[in-house]
Amino acid sequence: MMNTYNQSDKLDWQPLNFRDLATCSLSNVIESKELEQTEVNVLQPDLEIEPKPESEFNTESSELVVTQQTLEQLKQEIETQAYQEGFNLGREAGFDEGKKVGYEQGFLLGQQEGREQIVQQLNDERCKTVHAITDISNNFAQSINDIDELIVPKLFDLALIAAEKTVGSLTKIKQKQLMHTIKILVEQCSILSEPMSLHLNPTDWQWLKPMLNEENLQYKWQLIADPNIEIGGCKVFTDTNEIDTSINNHWQIMSDCVKRDNH
């Protein structure tokens, strides 16, 4: 007994396969069909199997061709639709990718252009500032020069006026200076034979007339009191010449000489 059980335990066991059932069922159906056909042939030996008419074959062929054409058309439509969908997806993906790349490139380009623009603006502002400072410096230097050109002559004129007023206010100095001037004129004009007129300020004419009567008769001079002549000055007139020895004329000559020396 023990050996029998042991042998049964050693048998190979396999699980049930549905394919085997399907194969068995199909085989049984085929065998049943064959048996039925055999029985019909045995029972009706003279009955011949009529072939299908040709029209049925043509119809089936036409239906087969139509079916194939329909399948081809469907296939083409499916392929076209799939291509279009793939194209749309690819275009959208490419558009998104291109948009992303374009955005990045545009951002970098805009950033670079912005930096360059800022640098250019800073350079322009710096140049403007430098030019403004240069203009201010040049204007300041020019103003100093203008002040020198204006003030120095004014100071010089003021000094001359002060000296003139100081000298002119001293009566004795004026009289001595006038006498010295007249003597020089007499010496220089003694060679002239034409009559001459000596114009004096009325104040100077009063005290100089007694002193110059003899010389006037000798050299045919004519003393004329002229209120237009300042005190301390005189003018000599002939038919062809005029000699101005007024104090203002002397100071003007001195001023012109000094200014020419400065320039």
TrEMBL record:
Pfam families: FliH. Residues 131-252 form the Flagellar assembly protein FliH/Type III secretion system HrpE domain. The keyword Protein transport applies. Transmembrane segments: none annotated. It comes from the Bacteria. GO terms for biological process: bacterial-type flagellum organization; bacterial-type flagellum-dependent cell motility; protein transport. It is found in: Cytoplasm. GO terms for molecular function: cytoskeletal motor activity. Keywords: Bacterial flagellum biogenesis, Bacterial flagellum protein export, Cell projection, Cilium, Cytoplasm, Flagellum, Protein transport, Transport. One of its GO terms (cellular component) is cytosol. The keyword Transport applies. Belongs to the FliH family. Needed for flagellar regrowth and assembly. This is Flagellar assembly protein FliH. It comes from Gilliamella intestini.
